[in-house]
Amino acid sequence: MAAGIAVLVPGGSGQLGAELAARAGAGQDIRAASRAELDLTQAGAVIEAVTALAEQATRDGRLPIVINAAAYTAVDAAETDQDRAFAVNADGPRVLAAACSSHGVPLVHVSTDYVFPGDGERPYEVDDRVEPRSVYGLTKLAGEDAVLGSGAQAWVVRTSWVYGAHGTNFVRTMIRLAGERDTVSVVDDQRGSPTWTGDLARGLFELAGRITAGDPPKQRLLHCTGGGETTWFGLARAVFEELGTDPDRVRPAKTADVPRPARRPAYSVLSNDSWRSAGLAALPDWRPALTAAFGELNP
């Protein structure tokens, strides 16, 4: 990423935001703002933060950009906490994008595989039919529409099955359960592409670098995930392998056996063709990425 960049990261204390902060390079002035520091549901605070970013970048001779990692990600809770979910995932990005448009600040907004119906049989392309089956997915799609329709210089990056060293996620949960239980039951009828935040952060910084260098992708909607695909069961077994314990301790289960308030996509693999076509480096395959991630997960 080019030197002289000023980056504002709403959601800076979440698993992706914290990773972005940790991987900021030389010459990058990054402000990873936690929800306490920047709540996207507070329009005045959002406008003030983007204004401050633009003004400070001008004073410092830097190029400003916003990478929005803030989101309401409690998928099940969103089914009954709809107002809050829409406020964070749709209304907040709308205000953020408008503020960015007003100050000429580019915006990269992170979205999700949950905007798709989850009944596909091949990796979803960026222009495939969207049809969320959960409140969470509906709110994220509304956020995408708000950002792309704002008039801002904005890009939406969909990703999936994100895990990393920060926050709560599936991989960290499996590490914990491996030390607490003899066996663990995990669904084997949901497929996706695990994405390590370390790889995703590098990809987002590469995109931000292209944008601020004046060579942005023409495509405003992109997919960026780890390569390949597996099931939650397959991922759990891989985690146990990395721990050096018997992967047969992970037992297969069906989604119907573990009902949840929000419907999960049965198939949520995203095609990364849009990312590669934009000239951006494809993320590594999910399995070697998991091995690399374990050096930082500190199980």
What would you report as the Rg, rounded to the nearest angstrom?
19 Å
Distance between the termini: 31 Å
Percent of residues in helices comes to 25-40%
Strand composition percent: 15-25%
Write the CATH homologous superfamily.
NAD(P)-binding Rossmann-like Domain
3D shape = globular
Query: Can you count the helices?
Result: 9
Poorly predicted tracts of residues: none
| Strand tally | 12
Write structural notes for this entry.
By secondary structure, the protein is an alpha/beta fold. It has 9 helices and 12 strands. The chain has one domain (5-168, 193-227, 268-283): Rossmann fold (3-Layer(aba) Sandwich), CATH 3.40.50.720. The chain has helices spanning 15-22, 43-60, 82-103, 135-148, 170-178, 197-212, 232-242, 273-277, 286-297, and strands at 5-10, 28-33, 63-68, 107-112, 154-159, 162-163, 184-187, 191-192, 195-196, 221-223, 230-231, 250-253. The longest helix has 22 residues, at 82-103. It starts with a strand and ends with a helix. The mean pLDDT is 95.
